[in-house]
């Protein structure tokens, strides 16, 4: 039995992307997220995710902050609960 049993390689944030936790559902495909860099942003759920990936409060996501408006971002990925637990256990997020 190895230490890596049950471990999966997970998508990590690319340059400019940050981990975030969904704190509030705003409607109209928008949510409030608390980012790992300490900033609270309004994030947009892109059309390609709207009907395929259900995002709820307390979900862990990766967001791509906008260059021209730092208080806004786009959601690029959502983690399953087991994936979020794995990231916390490995020390990637608090």
From TrEMBL:
Protein biosynthesis recorded as keyword: yes
Keywords recorded for this protein, A-Z: Initiation factor, Protein biosynthesis
S1-like domain location: 6-80
Pfam families: eIF-1a (PF01176)
Family: Belongs to the eIF-1A family.
Protein name, per record: Translation initiation factor 1A
Function: Seems to be required for maximal rate of protein biosynthesis. Enhances ribosome dissociation into subunits and stabilizes the binding of the initiator Met-tRNA(I) to 40 S ribosomal subunits.
GO molecular function, one term: RNA binding
Gene: eif1A
InterPro entries: NA-bd_OB-fold, RNA-binding_domain_S1_IF1, TIF_eIF-1A, TIF_eIF-1A_CS
């Amino acid at each position: 039995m190895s230490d890596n049993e049950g471990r999966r390689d997970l998508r990590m944030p690319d340059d400019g992307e940050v981990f975030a936790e969904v704190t509030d559902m705003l409607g109209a495909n928008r949510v409030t997220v608390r980012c790992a860099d300490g900033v609270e942003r309004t994030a947009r759920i892109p059309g390609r995710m709207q009907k395929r990936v259900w995002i709820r409060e307390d979900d862990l996501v990766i967001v791509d902050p906008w260059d021209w408006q730092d208080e806004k971002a786009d959601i690029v990925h959502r983690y399953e609960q087991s994936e979020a637990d794995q990231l916390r256990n490995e020390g990637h997020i608090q």
